[in-house]
Structure formats: structure tokens, C-alpha cells
Amino acid sequence: MASLKELSKKKDLFAPGHRGCAGCSASIVVRQTLLACDTPVVCSICTGCLEVFSSIFPYTAWKVPLIHSLFENSAATISGIESAYRALKKRKRYTRDLKFIAWGGDGGTYDIGLQALSGAIERGHDFLYICYDNEAYMNTGIQRSSATPLGAHTTTSPAGSVIPGKQQNRKDLTNIVVAHNVPYAAQAIPSNWRDLTTKVSKALSIKGPTFINVLSPCVIGWGYEPSETIGISKLAVDTCFWPLYEVENGKYKLNYKPKEKIPIRKWMEKQARFRHLFKKENKKIIDEIQNETDRKWEKLLKLCEE
Questions:
Q1: Nearest Cα residue to 72 out of 33, 34, 44
Q2: What are the backbone dihedrals phi and psi of residue 246, each rounded to the nearest 5 degrees, phi first?
Q3: Homologous superfamily of domain range 19-303
Q4: pTM higher than 0.70 for the full model?
Q5: For residue 84, with 0-12 CB atoms within 10 Å meaning exposed, 13-18 middle and 19 or more buried, which class applies?
Q6: Which of 18, 34, 169, 196 is buried deepest, with most CB atoms within 10 A?
Q7: How far apart are CA 137 and CA 146, in angstroms?
Q8: How high is the mean pLDDT in each 10-residue block of the chain (306 residues)?
């Protein structure tokens, strides 16, 4: 398990002074992830919020090698990098040990990058893929993605007299990845740094494709005060909207179980994207979201044999 004392002694590999919004959780996720790396890493990143605010030429916040690819190509790019590395080591033209991390938002992972991710996993490349899931295409104007929750207001699922926000439940990407028989997959959140850094260390120690899905609250897209990022994250876990668990060689393990399960409305009421759901005529949607959250939580408990 990660130690705060040990992590605090490490050199930061993600520099401050980038263009991220105040309260941006994606930058927190990257900083925590890179602090957990004990072996030199090479990263690939597709177009998205994280890439745009951290690596606009001629500046970069990354103190590790980083290759920027198209929106859908992060997993394909890391596949090529990892393959080239293995070829060089086989020919004894390179001797250092390296690890590889691919980054993508929910748009570049749940949606248009899913094919590349699935292919890279199926081929068995040795890399960790981290999805920073802010639940919409935030960089291009807050359009809905398949990670956007039911009822959420976005610019392409606008809440109004015609529809009350997004009309579909979000995709369960973590279990889609698990279905590929990966050796390791997990869910994490920036508010629990020990859980996240421990999972990163474990994922990088395992041979083959590994995956961590990190819920990354977005100040602009979700509509809350920048100072509330960590609090919003904690509520996502305590309402069981975003359970913290891991799946190692097909075996599910729950990493955190709330002492008291908080109603989902307590998390939703802090976000402007759900404000319209608290009108009397939309109460049934909150009930539907609560029922779906409960159903998935109970299913996970059974999988974890809790």
C-alpha cells in the first residue's frame, strides 16, 4: 500500500503552472499516478482536456516522455511504442526497463477510442491505460458521451421542455474491459490518493494490458465550485455511484464500503448539470437513477462476495 511519507519524497513528474481549470481533477489524477511510478514511464495521450491544458506547444507540464495522438488513438499509439521497445530490447539496442501508460478521457475511451483500446488489450501489449472519466466531451463544448449519466444536462442533451437531459444510462466501461480477460482492471477516484496510487503501482507491476477507470469531476461541465472537487469525489463513492473495486485475474475485490450509503440525490444536488431534475415533474428520473445505482451496487457486492 502506498505511503504518504514515501510519496512526498518523490520528485513531481507533472509540473504546476499548466492551463487546467482551478479545481480540475484530471491534473490531480496525473500527479498522483506519476508519483506512484517507480520505473521510468513513457506516456501516450489523445486529444482532450488533459492534453490541451498540459502540453500546448511549446510548453509542457509533463516531465516524462509524452506522445500526443489523435482523439481515438491513445491505445494504438502506446501499442506501437511498446512494440518498438520490445524490438529494441530483443536486439540489445536498448537495456533500460520502461513502463507504458496511455491516457484518454471518456470521449476518447468509452466512445471513439474503444476500438483501439479493445484491439490493444486483445493483442496483449504490456501497458496501463488510464481513463480520466469526466462524463462528457468537456474540451469541445460539454457534449454528451456514453459515460454521461442519465438525466445530465449537456449541450447535446439539453434539459428543457423537450427532453430532461440525457435519456440513457451510462456505459459500464470497466466491466467491458474486464470481459476482455485482462489480468487487472480497477476503478479509482482522486479523493482517495492511497487507493489510486496503490492501484497504479499494482497495475504497472503486472505483465500485460491493465486498466484503471478514474472518475474525474469537472468544475465547468458538472457545475460546482472549484473548492468542492474532492468533496464531490467522496460523495460519488459514498453514494455508491462510483464504487472503488479491482478485478485481478477475474476475481472481484471491493476496496471501500461506505459505513452509511448516502442517497444519490445528495451527490446530484451539488451539480448544476442535474439542477432541473429537482423539479417536481422530474422526480421520477432521480428515483430511476437511485434504483439503477442500487442495482449495480448489489450486483457488485455479489461479485465481490461481500
A1: 44
A2: -140, 155
A3: Thiamin diphosphate (ThDP)-binding fold, Pyr/PP domains (3.40.50.970)
A4: yes
A5: exposed
A6: 196
A7: 10
A8: 81 95 97 96 97 94 96 97 97 96 98 98 98 97 98 98 96 98 98 97 98 98 98 98 98 97 98 97 96 98 97
